[in-house]
Amino acid sequence: MAAAHVLVFPFPLRGHINRMLHFATALVGAGVHVTFLHTEHNLRRLGGRASASSPAGSPRLRFLSIPDGLPDDHRRSVADIFELYKSLAAEAIGPYRALLAPSPTTGSRAADVSVDPTGGFPPVTCLVADGVLPWAIDAAEELGVPAIAFRTISACSFLAYLSSPKLFELGELPFPAGGDLDEPVRGVPGMESLLRRRDLPRLCRRPNETDDVDPKLHTVVKLSADSSRARALILNTTASLEQSALAHIAPRMRDLFAVGPLHAMSPAAPCSSLLREDDGCTAWLDGHADRSVVYASLGSLATISRDQFTELFSGLVAAGYPFLWVFRPDMVEVEAGQDAALQEAVRGAGGSGKARVVAWAPQRDVLRHRAVGCFLTHAGWNSMLEAAIEGVPTVCWPLNADQQINSRFVGAVWKTGLDMKDVCDRAVVEKTVREAMESAEIRQSAQALAQQVRRDVAARGSSATEFDRLVKFVKKLSTSSDSPSST
Questions:
Q1: What CATH number belongs to 5-155+220-272+459-486?
Q2: Is 147 exposed, middle or buried (0-12, 13-18, 19+ CB in 10 A)?
Q3: Which CATH class is domain 281-438?
Q4: What is the Cα–Cα distance from 384 to 363, expressed in whole angstroms?
Q5: Is 330 known to be catalytic?
Q6: The model scores a pTM over 0.85
Q7: Which sequence ranges are marked TM in the entry (predicted)?
Q8: 68 burial class (0-12, 13-18, 19+ CB within 10 angstroms)?
Q9: Where in the chain is the domain with CATH 3.40.50.2000?
Q10: Which listed residue (68, 130, 278, 456) is catalytic?
């Protein structure tokens, strides 16, 4: 029987890498060989931090790299995602195919493999690729390697993308410019009484009366539909959070696995942070009372205007609580040479003693700290899961992608926080933060949900059971060219 060897290929952005590396580490713990595929640019940024295998030093995990086609000084920011997507598809396909079917004479570029072309690993028997890389899935199947898709967004947002053709058919998309954003949206099963126009991704909004829908929306919708071609779809979620959405997605996929939150199922994954974390956050939090600090972070990619910065910052100060704010150097859009006042405001906050401003924070450590009372977040799915399992109330200020739907579920379904979308006013920030910090009902809901999610990832919980089923699925794929579902 051939040893199972899974090639795990994330889209090369921090949030995608983090969760798929937790997934890879969990596979290693289940006895599977794993090759984790970075881009050359990201592997250089990680340096020696990526060369560690598993927490136990398992020889079953290795890191290889392929080019993304962009120069090293390219920003690779959220505004450039589609450029990165196109460049990766064009430049990586040759080296990628060589990893799936390596020549015995050429080998492959490896971060930690130099002895032989395969690095002592068996041939790749299965691919788990980011669902936004359908070309990677298609190439694997062409070479006889069965492929599984992995999406890093929430099930509810994935379902909305899957439902978009129906929304176009019903005339729900695109939204008219200047229309009522609180208008209910029909056509997303299970969410008919929940979703409003403002809860769908910003790509759904017409910029003005003359423009048609953003063509990027059609691209994203097609990427979601393409997941049905894979042998299965993996989602980093749990039935406790998204049972209804999962039930509506399942019939449209060949198989479906809900195996999250993965960071809680494999907490000791190798370092994957492309940003250097400030190691003084925990010590600073230690000096504060329980549930007295607001933690604020808008993720690793988001950019905001100077006016938005001013309103968020002023609202946090006015709320009156100590706060820990992740303020990346590239987060605020300002003209060159015109950021002196902004930097002075940040320095002033950090010197006040009531605030700590850092370029990046160890978020999971921060959220589990007793001093944190609420989390002001962009509502990215990774952040939502990290807050959920720690029982931390959230204030959601979503910006793009799946964040609009995630924040709606926080405020209207799970009731573990407040949704502040489409508003950036200091008075609203102040009021919303205070309510999240002081509401006993929100805190009780957050803690109750945390208890359930922890049960899901524990032994015999729903996510743990699904992961066991997934490992068996992968091993069966690795011994047969046919999908288990078709035999």
A1: 3.40.50.2000
A2: buried
A3: alpha beta
A4: 12
A5: no
A6: yes
A7: none
A8: buried
A9: 5-155+220-272+459-486, 281-438
A10: 130
